[in-house]
Design the sequence.
């Protein structure tokens, strides 16, 4: 093998092209992995959001059901306004009809 400036230059060019092609392949592979990871994270976030919305909807339904049981009692109870003989503790008396 003859070692001169031309063979060294050609060798460096070949190594640089191979290095560039290798980096391109690695970059493409890393991008594919990142996109798959992003898609998986997005799907997981969507599932968690659906669970959160379902729990929120169930909690709202439970609160509505609880309020429906209490609402008739609230409508029938009347608050007696304090007059000159008000309780000393500052509490209001509730009178049921």
Sequence:
């Amino acid at each position: 093998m003859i070692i001169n400036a031309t063979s060294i230059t050609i060798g460096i060019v070949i190594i640089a092209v191979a290095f560039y092609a290798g980096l391109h392949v690695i970059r493409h592979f890393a991008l594919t992995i990142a996109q798959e990871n992003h898609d998986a994270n997005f799907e997981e976030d969507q599932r968690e959001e659906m669970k959160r919305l379902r729990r929120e909807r169930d909690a709202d339904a439970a609160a509505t059901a609880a309020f429906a049981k209490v609402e008739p009692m609230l409508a029938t109870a009347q608050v007696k306004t304090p007059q000159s003989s008000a309780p000393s503790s500052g509490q209001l008396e509730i009178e049921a009809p």
Summary: The longest strand covers residues 78-79. The chain has one helix and two strands. Residues 33 and 39 are 10 Å apart (CA to CA).
